[in-house]
Amino acid sequence: MAIEITDANFAELVEKSDKPVLVDFWAEWCGPCRQVGPIVEELSKEYEGKALIGKLDVDSNPNVAMKFGIRSIPTLLFFKGGQMVDRQVGLVPKSVLEGKLKAQL
Predict the structure, then answer these.
(1) Which of 35, 55, 74, 75 is 20 to 30 A from 6 via CA?
(2) Catalytic site residue 33?
């Protein structure tokens, strides 16, 4: 299951992670976000132990969203070694997200 990432735990979970991290920036009211949600959940199960997969609600956690210039959601950011290495904006097929995630392993 994807973990909940917040302004408060972002540094600990994402920036200090020794595994690649995928963060789904989303909001409850966003239709495309609700469509990408099940894909993110599938990836979290498939990559358990290999990568950290999390979701960050932009309405509840505006600081991290501002830090990374999130203007459209869903936006999925990929981190490696605490640094953002890739970004995907908008709804895309699972294969696209999986390819970007595999590139960080």
Answers:
(1) 35
(2) yes
Catalytic choice (14, 22, 30, 43): 30
Question: Is residue 36 within 8 Å of residue 67, measured between CB atoms?
Answer: no
Residue in 22, 33, 53, 76 annotated catalytic: 33
Q: What is the pTM of this model?
A: 0.96
Total domain count for the chain?
1
Model pLDDT, residue 102? 96
Which range marks the domain in which residue 77 is found?
3-102
47 is catalytic: no
What CATH number corresponds to the domain at position 30?
3.40.30.10
Which ranges of the chain does DSSP label H, i.e. alpha helix? Answer: 10, 31-46, 62-67, 94-102
